């Protein structure tokens, strides 16, 4: 059984993330989408909220599970029996950091490959930060985030601005 982990902050999940999840689910037998906790980032959604939002969006993929970890990514991947870590690449700007991390993770755990997936051209401009920024100004988010979570984003933005 070929298992992959797709890690990220997913604050919140976007259509760009979902596109990577769908493609990875078509290649691997099982994909764990893992919400990683980064103490340096101040997220808009709590870890549990992010997990719940992703779960709602990936319901239709039978081989996708949503999880969370605040440990080392390779340790998590190993605990799940994964042979690969999936990363989405939007632009050259993503590459430098992701390449360093891939080499560091390979050093820590030579049995786990990092695999890069090129973003769909439709979503190369899309990040969770863009969604939050546009949402603040009341933009229509239907081209950016899954419809299942649109109201949650609106509600969160409303409650954080009062
Ligand atoms: P961000 O906050 O920049 O959206 P995340 O940490 O949530 O970043 O991203 C998780 C993973 O998804 C990373 O591998 C990132 O490169 C990838 N990713 C994010 N947005 C997209 C997109 N629009 N298309 C493809 N991959 C993406």
Distance between the termini: 49 Å
Order of helices and strands: EHEHEHEHEHH
What value does the Rg take, in angstroms?
A: 15 Å
| Low-pLDDT segments, ≥5 res | none
Bound molecules: adenosine-5'-diphosphate
Question: What count of helical segments does DSSP give?
Answer: 6
Please state roughly what percent of the residues sit in beta strands, choosing from under 5%, 5-15%, 15-25%, 25-35%, 35-45% or over 45%: 15-25%
Q: Please identify the structural class as seen in this structure.
A: alpha/beta
Largest sheet geometry: 5 strands, parallel
Mean pLDDT: 95
Describe the protein:
This protein is of the alpha/beta class. The chain is built from six helices and five strands. A five-stranded parallel sheet has the order 3-2-1-4-5, sandwiched between helices. The site of adenosine-5'-diphosphate (ADP) has 17 residues, from helix 1, strand 4 and helix 5.
Entry keywords:
single chain; 162 residues; alpha/beta; five-stranded parallel sheet; 6 helices; 43% helix; 19% strand; binds adenosine-5'-diphosphate
Brief sketch in words of this structure:
With 162 residues, the chain is of the alpha/beta class.
Write the topology of this structure.
Layout lengths: L2 E6 L6 H13 L2 E7 L10 H12 L5 E6 L3 H7 L4 E6 L2 H17 L4 E6 L9 H9 L13 H12 L1
Parallel strand pairs: 1-2, 1-4, 2-3, 4-5
The protein binds adenosine-5'-diphosphate.
């Amino acid at each position: 059984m070929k298992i992959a982990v797709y890690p990220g902050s997913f604050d919140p999940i976007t259509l760009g993330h979902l596109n990577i999840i769908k493609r990875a689910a078509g290649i691997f037998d099982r994909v764990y989408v893992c919400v990683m906790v980064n103490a340096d980032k101040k997220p808009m959604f709590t870890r549990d909220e992010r997990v719940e939002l992703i779960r709602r969006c990936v319901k239709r993929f039978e081989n996708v599970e949503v999880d969370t970890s605040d440990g080392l990514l390779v340790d998590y991947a190993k605990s799940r029996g994964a042979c690969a870590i999936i990363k989405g690449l939007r632009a050259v700007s993503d590459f430098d950091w992701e390449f360093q991390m891939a080499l560091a993770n390979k050093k820590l755990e030579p049995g786990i490959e990092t695999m890069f997936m090129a973003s769909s051209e439709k979503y190369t401009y899309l990040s969770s930060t863009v969604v939050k920024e546009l949402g603040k100004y009341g933009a229509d988010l239907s081209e950016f985030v899954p419809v299942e979570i649109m109201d949650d984003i609106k509600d969160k933005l409303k409650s954080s601005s009062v």
